[in-house]
Amino acid sequence: YTHFVRRYRYELSEINNLSESVVEIVLKPTAVPINFQAGQFAYLSFENPQIDSEAHPYSFSNANNGPYVRFTIKALGDDTIKIKQLFPGTTAYVEGPYGMFSYKNVRNHKQVWIAGGIGITPFLSMARSLSGKKHYDIRFYYGIESLDDAVFLQEFIDITRHIPENFSTTVVSENISGFVSVDLLKKSLQNLAEFDYMICGPPSMMKAIRQQLKQSGVEDSQIHIESFSL
Predict the structure, then answer these.
(1) How are strands ordered across the β-sheet holding 196-200?
(2) What CA–CA distances, in Å, run from 214 to 154, 160, 176, 206?
(3) What number of H helices and E strands is found in the chain?
(4) What pTM was estimated for this model as a whole?
(5) CA gap 87, 83 in Å, rounded
(6) First vs last C-alpha separation in the chain
(7) Residue 151, CA atoms < 13 Å, CB-side half-sphere
(8) Which of 68, 156, 194, 223 could form a disulfide with 169 if both were Cys (CB 3.0 to 4.6 A apart)?
(9) Cβ distance 78 to 104 under 8 Å?
């Protein structure tokens, strides 16, 4: 483990409260910074007695365009709730990068991105890296419980305005229009089989959409799921 895991030492620079349950962690390197691809994830741990020392996987939420790294974390358990109580200067360790979940690894440049809740984080990283890549055709669907949970909606709207011919954003609020589904996709996509699909969110959501896509004639090789696999 000591010899083969790529482990980088960082320092907590900022904690930004984006909502009651979502925080953004900003880390600055104390030595060589990690090099990652937009969409990848890493294992993150902190030197703090109040938090379990075990590392947990989180997607990068910045576009790898500077020394700082950002993670957007939703408080779902005891440890993630305690992260909100950390203070600048806390030592952090970033292990990775891991994963192949990136639009750059998909040959088809016509892509549908589907995010559920905090599953938006890898798409945030990827969208922030899209500037100038005008040969892509990307349709982004952002599934949330309510509009109060859409913490990065304005940024995606700004990205859509910047490259409107290559990137579109559709917000699907559960309490208004239900869940993201293939029936909803069919309302704006004439041919589902023309696209590859990148999906990140709750396991039940990813499983349901994958099954619906396959039943609609989309090949399994066209469906890409973020399951934090190494």
Answers:
(1) 167-173, 137-144, 110-116, 196-200, 223-225
(2) 32, 28, 26, 12
(3) 6, 11
(4) 0.86
(5) 9
(6) 15
(7) 21
(8) 156
(9) no
Euclidean distance between CA atoms 159 and 97, whole angstroms: 25
Residue 60 DSSP label: B
**C-beta separation of 43 from 94 below 8 A:** yes
> CB neighbours of 148 closer than 8 A, spacing ≥ 6?
19
Structure tokens at 8: 């980088």
Name the one residue in this structure whose structure tokens are 């030492």: 9
Burial class (CB in 10 A: 0-12, 13-18, 19+), 57: middle
Q: What is the pLDDT of residues 32-61, one digit of tens each?
A: 999 999 999 999 999 988 787 888 899 999
Identify the residue whose tokens are 């030595």.
31
Please give the Cα distance from 179 to 144 (Å, whole number). 8
**What is the chain's Cα-based Rg?**
18
* CA–centroid distance for 127 within its chain: 10
The position carrying tokens 């938006």 is 120
Task: Quote the CA–CA distance of 149 and 20 in Å, as a whole number.
Answer: 9
CA distance 106 to 104: 6
- 10 Å CB burial of residue 126 (0-12, 13-18, 19+) is buried
Going by C-alpha positions, the residue among 144, 124, 147 that lies closest to residue 198 is 124
Extract the tokens encoding 195.
């696209």
DSSP state of 187: T
Could you read off the pLDDT of 73-120 as tens digits, one per residue?
Answer: 887 666 566 787 888 999 999 999 999 999 999 999 999 999 998 888
Please give the backbone phi and psi of residue 93, each rounded to the nearest 5 degrees, phi first.
-120, 130
